[in-house]
Amino acid sequence: MPRDPALPLLLTPGPVSVSRSTKEVMLLDRPSGDVEFSADLRFAREYLVSIVNGGGRYTAVPVPGSATYANEAVIATLVPEGGKLLLHSNGVYGDRLIEICEALGTPYAVLRTEPFTPPTAAQFEAMLRADPVITHIMVVHCETSTGVLNPLEEVAALCQRYAKRLLIDAVASFGAIDLDARSLRFDAAVLSSNKCMQGVPGVGWAVVARDALEGAKGHCRSLTLDLWDQEQHMQRTGGFRFTPPTHVVSAFAQACREHADEGGAPARLARYRRNWRRLVDGMRQMGFATVVPDAHASPIVATFRAPEHPGFSFEALFAGMKRRGFVIFPGRLALANTFRIGCMGAVEEADIAEAMEALAEVMTEMGIRDLGRVEAAGA
Ligand SMILES: *Cc1c(COP(=O)(O)O)cnc(C)c1O
């Protein structure tokens, strides 16, 4: 049965598709002090902490807005006066952390590496040795603009060795790629209500070490982004300081239940891996080449080179896919002519298989029969 183009499936790096059952939760208007709403909020917070096995030591603080708001709240709340942040960037989201520091006036240093390769521990270590003033390191776990998975464990080990605090932009990994606070010490991990958690977009979350947050009173120069203040308010009242995004939070609680029902992060990662495998195999069979070496690629999104073929146009591919009920995404990097197809969200391997059939049809429409076979991308 062909897909209904009026209900397109998002094969994008975000927002991602959400299950019908999660969206249906939003049909009810809930008052803010309502017991059911308070229970949803409490459950969602506890569930997020349980994903990282952080029971007792961590708390989950919601920040209305997209995940960038929560990244900004983490930097503004946890990096104190006199602190300095070492940022790593190999893509759009690393660069956004730099923009946040610029806007907040937070002192920072940048380790920049090539877009399609992760950094090495030695590169971080050289920066730390050269600049002892650095107090915190912030890394993007999974750089969604390319799909590159950055080496979180190595950076966390360095933080331990040099007594630095670790902040993680886990927006594209949290809920799928393993993050365990028992083996990897971090002060904060940021996630989105959407992405791998598959709630509707609208709330960012910071999973924060209680001891780091307790010491952060008065750091934040913003009222709305102050995680310390939101946390102490939740401890007193169980709720948000200002009008809560009730629909988003209750839908998020449902998304958490569905995450648990699926089998938690390992099962979700396994499904995304199946999606990614089907996608990359299907695209390679049609002659498309991936940009990121497979060894560094995360299964949340894949970046493809736009083929040189004179008949090919991304706009035509996008439009043809949209007519068939699939939304794909342009590349984010100016330096390469690329496009992206996402594997996150309420998407199954069978959906990817259908998308590959649709893509083959669109290629035929463009008059492209064969791009030639492409082998796996090497390092
Ligand atoms: C989606 C995403 C963000 C947040 O971007 P928004 O535009 O605020 O949704 C931050 N970091 C990463 C790695 C992301 O994938």
Could you write a compact summary of the structure shown?
The protein has 379 residues and is of the alpha/beta class. It is 40% helix and 16% strand.
Written description of the protein model:
With 379 residues, the protein is α/β, with parallel strands linked by helices. The protein folds into two domains: 9-16 and 264-365, Aspartate Aminotransferase, domain 1 (Alpha-Beta Complex); 21-262, Aspartate Aminotransferase, domain 2 (3-Layer(aba) Sandwich), CATH 3.40.640.10. The chain is built from twelve helices and 14 strands. It has helices at residues 20-24, 35-51, 67-78, 92-104, 121-130, 152-162, 210-214, 227-237, 246-262, 264-285, 314-323, 349-365; strands spanning 9-10, 58-64, 85-89, 108-112, 136-140, 142-143, 148-149, 165-169, 188-192, 203-209, 301-305, 326-327, 329-330, 338-342. Strands 2-10-9-8-5-3-4 form a seven-stranded mixed beta sheet, sandwiched between helices. The protein is globular, with a radius of gyration of 21 Å. The protein binds pyridoxal-5'-phosphate. Pyridoxal-5'-phosphate binds next to helix 3.
